[in-house]
C-alpha cells in the first residue's frame, strides 16, 4: 500500500460532467471542448487557488452505443484521431487533466471501449475496459473486445488515480488491484443503462468500492432517459460528497468536489481494513 506524508499531500479539484453523447462523433468532440472550457472556468471561479483540476466525462463520450445491432467498428477511432485530438487540445488549452471514454479502433479486430486521460502537458494514459456489459439482457461483447487484465493508475494533482469503466464497478477485485497499486481515488466513467434497481445498484456499488478500499470513488454517468445519471463522489469513509439527479440528455450537469490525500490517510488510520487483510 502507498503511504502519504504531510510533505507529499495532494489535492485535486474534480469536475464531474454528466452529459449525453450523441451518434455524431464530430459533434461530441466539439461538445467535449465546450464542456471542458465550462468546467475549467467554473472550477477556477469557485476556487481561484484550486491548483490541479481533473474534468471527468462519461464512458463512450466519443459516440453513444446506439442500437444493439450497430456496428461500432465503423465509428471507432485511433488514438491519434479527432476525439483524442480534441480531448488533448482541451487539456492543454485550459491547463487541466481530462478523462473521457471512446471506441478505439484496433487493426484486424473489434474495437475496444477505452478511457483516455490527458494531463495539461498532453501526456497521459489509456485504459481498455476489462469487463464488458454482458448482463441484464445486453451483450457488449458482441460488438467490442475486452481489454486485458491490466489495472491502470496515474498520478494527477498529487493523488494516484485508478481507472475503471461502468460495468467494472461490479467487480471488487479490480478496485482492490488499483488500490494495491497505490490508488487514492477510483475514477469511473459510465453509461449505466437505466432500469429496475439500476440506480440503487449504482449507488450501493459506488459506496461499497469506496468503503472497502478506503478510497474516493468518482463515478460519472450519462443522464436519463436512456441512462441512470446520478453521478457522485464518495469519500474514503463512504460519505456521499456530491450527487446529481438522473438529469436530462439536453442539459449537462456539472458537479464539483475536492479530493485530498490527507483524507485518505485519515480514513485508513480510522479504518485500517486494508492493513488488517490476511492473505
From TrEMBL:
<dbReference type="GO" id="GO:0016787">
    <property type="term" value="F:hydrolase activity"/>
</dbReference>
<dbReference type="InterPro" id="IPR036526">
    <property type="entry name" value="C-N_Hydrolase_sf"/>
</dbReference>
<dbReference type="InterPro" id="IPR001110">
    <property type="entry name" value="UPF0012_CS"/>
</dbReference>
<dbReference type="InterPro" id="IPR003010">
    <property type="entry name" value="C-N_Hydrolase"/>
</dbReference>
<keyword id="KW-0378">Hydrolase</keyword>
<comment type="similarity">
    <text>Belongs to the carbon-nitrogen hydrolase superfamily. NIT1/NIT2 family.</text>
</comment>
<dbReference type="Pfam" id="PF00795">
    <property type="entry name" value="CN_hydrolase"/>
</dbReference>
<protein>
    <submittedName>
        <fullName>Carbon-nitrogen hydrolase family protein</fullName>
    </submittedName>
</protein>
<feature type="domain" description="CN hydrolase">
    <location>
        <begin position="12"/>
        <end position="266"/>
    </location>
</feature>
Amino acid at each position: 500500500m502507498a503511504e502519504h506524508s504531510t510533505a507529499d499531500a495532494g489535492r485535486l479539484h474534480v469536475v464531474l460532467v454528466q452529459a449525453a453523447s450523441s451518434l455524431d462523433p464530430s459533434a461530441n468532440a466539439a461538445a467535449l471542448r465546450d464542456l471542458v472550457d465550462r468546467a475549467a472556468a467554473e472550477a477556477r471561479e469557485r476556487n481561484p487557488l484550486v491548483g490541479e483540476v481533473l474534468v471527468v466525462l462519461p464512458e463512450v463520450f466519443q459516440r453513444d452505443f446506439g442500437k444493439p445491432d450497430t456496428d461500432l467498428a465503423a465509428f471507432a477511432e485511433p488514438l491519434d484521431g479527432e476525439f483524442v485530438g480534441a480531448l488533448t487540445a482541451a487539456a492543454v488549452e485550459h491547463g487541466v487533466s481530462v478523462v473521457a471514454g471512446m471506441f478505439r479502433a484496433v487493426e484486424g479486430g473489434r474495437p475496444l471501449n477505452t478511457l483516455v486521460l490527458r494531463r495539461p502537458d498532453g501526456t497521459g494514459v489509456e485504459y481498455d475496459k476489462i469487463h464488458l456489459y454482458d448482463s441484464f439482457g445486453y451483450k457488449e461483447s458482441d460488438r467490442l473486445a475486452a481489454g486485458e487484465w491490466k489495472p491502470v493508475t496515474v498520478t494527477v494533482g498529487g493523488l494516484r488515480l485508478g481507472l475503471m469503466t461502468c460495468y467494472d464497478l461490479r467487480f471488487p477485485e479490480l478496485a482492490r488491484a488499483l488500490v494495491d497499486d497505490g490508488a487514492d481515488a477510483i475514477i469511473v466513467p459510465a453509461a449505466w443503462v437505466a432500469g429496475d434497481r439500476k440506480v440503487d445498484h449504482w449507488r450501493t456499488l459506488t459506496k461499497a468500492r469506496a468503503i472497502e478500499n478506503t478510497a474516493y470513488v468518482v463515478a460519472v454517468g450519462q443522464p436519463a432517459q436512456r441512462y441512470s445519471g446520478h453521478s457522485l463522489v464518495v469519500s474514503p469513509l463512504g460519505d456521499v460528497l456530491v450527487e446529481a439527479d438522473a438529469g436530462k440528455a439536453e442539459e449537462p450537469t456539472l458537479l464539483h468536489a475536492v479530493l485530498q490525500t490527507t483524507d485518505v490517510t485519515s480514513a485508513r488510520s480510522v479504518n485500517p481494513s486494508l492493513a488488517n487483510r490476511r492473505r
